[in-house]
Amino acid sequence: MDPHHDARRLRRANLRLAWLLALVAIGFLVGFILVNLP
Amino acid sequence: MTTTTAAHGEHPEHGPARGLMRWVTTTNHKDIGTLYLLFALTMFFVGGAMAMVIRAELFQPGLQFVEPQFFNQMTTMHALVMIFGAVMPAFVGLANWQIPMMIGAPDMALPRMNNWSFWLLPFAFAMLLSTLFLTGGGPAGGWTMYPPLMLQTGEALPFVIFAVHLMGISSVMGAINVIVTVLNMRAPGMTLMKMPLFVWTWLITAFLLIAAMPVLAGAVTMLLTDRYFGTAFFDAAGGGDPVMYQHIFWFFGHPEVYIMILPAFGIVSQIIPTFARKPLFGYSSMVYATASIAFLSFIVWAHHMFTVGMPLAGELFFMYTTMLIAVPTGVKVFNWVATMWRGSMTFETPMLFAIAFVFLFTIGGFSGLMLAITPVDFQYHDTYFVVAHFHYVLVTGAVFAIMAAAYFWLPKWTGHRYDERLGRIHFWLSAVSVNVLFFPQHFLGLAGMPRRIPDYAVQFADWNMISSLGGFAFGASQLLFLYIVVKTIRGGARAGAEVWEEAHGLEWTLPSPPPYHSFTEAPEVR
Q: Does the predicted interface ipTM exceed a cut of 0.85?
């Protein structure tokens, strides 16, 4: 993707990927706590 | 690899804001990179001061300067500050400065989050360091924070845990920014396999950060709830298991080691081809080796805890997987040496640090292999041999690479050449003193000196004295580094766009210093 053209599409793609990665991180955090409940 | 033509515009009307608020509200990748680097340098001296306290106390047997409890706080805080405050932010600073310029992007993908990622750090470390003034002092259970020892910490515990949470959030946001920038913002023609090695190693590091940091956050959160909210994650009396903490911590901790060394591999892979005046030998094998190391980092964690009493099959598994890491690492070392082979080499300061990295990091790698052998580790575990090993990896590895990067890119960042003579003096002082500091610690460990103690048997006196002298010299040498950096920022001979004779890549097509907004028009990558 050319970052110098179509700024709106790029911004949407950036936010989509960022949220996906953030959800993965949050999932790891919550998952690790839950599987370790005694 | 890539040949490029410069295409960039100067937009003075879009320059930085003036005054202090420029740095508070900035969303510019260069400004944020500078903030990260200055923060890391400050923390390097804070953590270094703690190291001086440690080495002063260990200068001779007996208790000299500090109480044992304060000594333990120093070892704990030294590690936390150096890992999370110096090495990691330094690499994030380098990534902020270099990645957009290297891939032909105008800025990082998420500039406001970038600002937030940085500004969490001063608050996190202010909180962490303030615990030294609380009743009971700071954390003293080691940076690994094992329960039940860590749960005996005084008022400092929740502050430490919240500080670790903030550092984790900062790191994860920084990693998200790097991944999104690299995957979405590359200039047309900049395919993944044309990316500079520094960008590749950082992309892989960012995935490690996203997978590893939440695990640490989970571990310390469980410590917090065990202490204050009645849970028993790590309390055997309540059905929990303290050894489980060690498994969780090192599932984070070993990838963390690679988080601190993969970007260093990237830096060295940029510098050696430049000063050998040859393309990097085995570019694609470097990429695959980096990815292999990252994958293996998730299946070796229990080699840090061979002595807890694992089943034999577990010990064998973790021994073999750990030894397997030597294969991709060996590929890398071979490729660096092959790049230098018959190269037209010159030995400016960045190259000196890079060559020292290859040599001394390999020593750290070999001692790591020794520690990987399970029955042998039973002897070495928790001795100064381990301390020597990881300081070779992290000081002559990560820190030397950061210094190489600073000398390599300072002329690009500031537009001024650094004083080469002083740079070389700094290198030789550092290279000699760091070996006087850490090499004797191998002997101390092999002779049985335990780590994390303020006093020791007289049989360890001589090597400890030599190690401390090396430590003081290494610490003092870094004041020269500070002087060189300040001098270069303030002035010096002008640096052209292509600072080094055989420097290749998009960043060298920009003037030195680069304009505030790097590539407002797409550069052409062939």
A: yes
